[in-house]
Specification:
Blueprint (H helix, E strand, L loop, with lengths): L1 E10 L2 E11 L4 E5 L6 H8 L7 E6 L2 E2 L5 H6 L2 E4 L11 H11 L6 H11 L16 H14 L4 E5 L10 H13 L3 E6 L11 E6 L2 E6 L1 H5 L2 H7 L1 H10 L1
Parallel strand pairs: 3-8, 3-9, 6-7, 7-8
Antiparallel strand pairs: 1-2, 1-4, 4-5, 9-10
Bound molecules: adenosine-5'-triphosphate.
């Protein structure tokens, strides 16, 4: 469904992604994991057409995305929830979520698409009339993911959905990701912390300074000390060794 081959991206004269290969199949949950600055956001921004690669290909359902404008990429069915969860302050929560239903036609009605998003995050029903500026970080994250889902995408990109959230909100987002997955949507999720990776993840890619250093299952990653050093830190490697 999504196939990235040999992707190279330069920013300000520096190579930020150096020959990335990655695939996401229909209905798969795939995690791209790496430390801060590894290049996860740059990968997502390249998929969405905000960054132009110097080499490589990004194809979605057989169509090349490189060179397409962002709105066209979204219309092809890729929903994007960025790390910073931009929620439109001048729109209500309900309007923020409904936004993609105005820009991408789907076989589902606007109501059905919004309802589906609200079923993923039922807590949002209390805030529907509230302005986008009057939300906590966790609420903004829910709106951002719900909005990306209202696009009725066949692939959802979630950039560090747990980043900066309080421990109380993490299980809510985690349950939301599980129900999105149960709907059969393909999800590509970026993470810097292996502990946030759901056990049911299909495949992990580990990115280090713009290069992919590992591809495999979560179980294989846990058995690889060099990989765990990158995605879990030294302390956790010790814990794993004693487990
Ligand atoms: N606009 C920019 N100008 C200059 N350098 C940039 C810019 N955006 C990203 N970079 C650099 O590109 C590299 C990759 O950044 P990117 O944001 O993709 O990493 P990331 O893995 O998403 O990290 P984080 O978890 O901190 O968001 C970093 O070294 C970063 O400093």
């Amino acid at each position: 469904m999504l196939k990235i081959s040999g992707l190279k991206v330069d920013i300000g004269g520096s190579r930020v992604l150096n020959g990335l290969d990655l695939t996401v199949g229909p209905g798969e949950l795939v995690c791209l994991i790496g430390r801060n600055g590894a290049g996860k956001t740059t990968t997502f921004r390249s998929i969405m057409g905000y960054r132009q690669p110097v080499a490589g290909s990004i194809s979605f359902k057989g169509q090349e995305l490189v060179g397409l404008q962002t709105y066209k990429i979204a219309q092809l069915g890729i929903g994007y929830s960025p790390e910073e969860s931009d929620v439109y302050a001048d729109l209500s929560v309900a309007e923020n979520i409904a936004l993609p239903t105005w820009t991408r036609p789907s076989t589902l009605s606007e109501e059905a698409r919004v309802e589906r998003s609200l079923n993923v995050f039922p807590k949002l029903r209390q805030y529907l009339t509230r302005g986008g500026a009057q939300l906590s970080g966790g609420e903004r994250k829910m709106v951002s993911v719900a909005r990306a889902l209202a696009l009725d995408p066949s692939l959802l990109l979630l950039d560090e959905p747990f980043e900066g959230l309080s421990p109380a909100i993490i299980p809510i987002i985690s349950e939301g990701v599980a129900s999105i997955r149960a709907m059969g949507e393909a999800v590509l999720m970026a993470e810097s912390n292996v502990h946030h990776v759901p056990e049911y993840v299909d495949r992990l890619y580990v990115l280090e300074r713009g290069e992919m250093i590992f591809t495999g299952t979560l179980e294989q990653a846990r058995r690889d000390r060099a990989v765990m050093r990158v995605i879990a830190g030294e302390i956790d490697v010790g814990e794993i060794a004693h487990a």
